[in-house]
Amino acid sequence: MYQTPQKLSKKKIIELCILIFLILWGIIFIINYIRYSNSEPLIMAIHVSSEYEDGVVDEYISLGYIYRSYRRVSISREELVPFWVLKENPESEADLPEILTDYEVPENIRHEDKYRGLLYYYNIKGELLGTYKCINSVGECEKATSGYDEYNIANADPLTRLETQRTLTAIHDKYAFVDDSSEQDVEYGNNNFLRTIYLINFLDEEKEIIAKYADVKESTHNEDKNVGDGENYRYIVRSAENNKWGVIYLSEKGNITEIMPFEYDSINYDEDTGYYILCKDGSWYIYDLQNEKTVSATSTDPIYDVWRNDNLTYYYKTGRERTVGDETFIDYKVYRIDGKIFLNVDRVTLVEVRSNCIFYLTANDSVLHFIDYSNEEKYKVQLAFSNMEKDSFNHPAFEIAREYSGIIVLHVYQGRDLKYDFESIPVNTVRWESNEER
Known about the structure:
Layout (H helix, E strand, L loop, with lengths): L9 H28 L8 E7 L2 E7 L3 E8 L3 E7 L31 E2 L2 E5 L5 E6 L8 E2 L23 E2 L6 E5 L17 E5 L6 E10 L2 E3 L4 E3 L4 E6 L5 E6 L5 E9 L1 E4 L6 E5 L2 E6 L4 E2 L8 E6 L5 E11 L2 E10 L4 E3 L4 E6 L4 E5 L4 E5 L5 E6 L15 E7 L2 E7 L8 E7 L4 E2 L4
Parallel strand pairs: 9-14
Antiparallel strand pairs: 1-2, 2-3, 3-4, 5-6, 6-7, 8-10, 10-11, 11-12, 12-15, 13-14, 15-16, 16-17, 18-19, 19-20, 20-21, 22-23, 23-24, 24-25, 26-27, 27-28, 28-29, 30-31, 31-32, 32-33
C-alpha cells in the first residue's frame, strides 16, 4: 500500500538550509582565501575603492570578511580580516621626501663627485652649482650609475663587460639621478635588491626631489670622460610602483614626459643605430622610436645587440642560456633584421661585431672565427681554451689589446693560470692577413 512521504519539519528545513549555506560559505571562503594569497580580487564580493592624498585602498567585502589592499605611501600591505576589523587610516605622507638643506658645505678643492658624505655638482667652468645630502643611506648615497634588468644585457659578454659602471651625468646643469638606497652592500644586479633612485633638482635655491624610480640606465656614454647619459634627454627608468621599465623625457624646466609606458621587462638603447631593444611578456623586438615603428620580428630569446654593416644592412644578436654538464653559457645566434638566419653554429659563446666583419668563439673547438658579411670565413685563430671569464686568478682565452687601421691585436693566453703568458696576434680585417704588431 502506497504511503505518502512525510514532510520535513520546519526545524529540519532550517537546519538543512543552514548546512547548505555553511558548505557554500566554506567553498567560497576557500576560493577567496586562495585568491587573496595570490593578490587577486575576491569573488562574490562588493568592491569599494577609497582615494587618499597618498594613494588608494581597495576593499572587497564578502560574507563576514573583507579583503583590503592598501596602496598608500603611509601604508602598503594586504589583509583578509573579519568584517568587524576597521580599516586603518594613518595620516597621509608625501610621495616624495623633502631634500635636506640645513647643513654645511665643506670646500671641495679637488672637485670630487663625493666629499665628506655630500654629492657635489659643478658646471663646465668648475663653478659649484649645488650639493645633495643623503636622505636614506646615511652618507652612503652616490651619483647614480647605469643599472640592470633581470637579463643583465649591458654586461652579458666577458669581453666587453664593465668592471665599474659609468656615472650618469648631470642634466641641464640643474638635475641629476642619485642612488639613495637604504642598502649599498648587496651585489650590484641582484634581482632582490631594488635601488631607490631620485631625480633631483640640485640647485641651491631650487632644491627638491621631482621623481622617484627603482632604477635608471644609461643610453649613450662618453668614452673620454667615462660617463653615461640619456639619448636627447630621454632616460630609461624603472617604475618604483610596478617595477617595469619605461622611457621619460626631461625638459629644461623639469617637466617629465612619458615617452614609452612603464610596461617593459627590459629596455636598452643602441647608440649606433638609434634603435631601442624591448622585451615585453617574454617577446623581444627592435623598435624605431623616431618613426614609432617596430623594425624586426619578435624573438623568444633575448636580443643583445643590433648593428649595421658598411652596406647599411642591419643585423641583431640573440642568445639562449644553455647548460651542458657543469657549464652554463649563452649560445648566440645572429640574424638579419628581416629575420633571416646569418650565423647558426652550435655553442657560439661570444660574438663581436665590426662594420666589415664578425668574429665569434666556438666552445666546441676553442676556435675564434672571423667571417665577412657574405658569410665567408676569412681567418681563424686556434685558442688554448674557450673560457672568457677573467678574475684575479685566471686569464681569459684572449683579450683585445688594441685596434688601429682595421687591425685587431689579440693577446691569446696559453693557459688559464696567471703563470701563463700571451701570444700577440694581429689580424688585418682589411686585407685578411696576419701582420706583425707595429
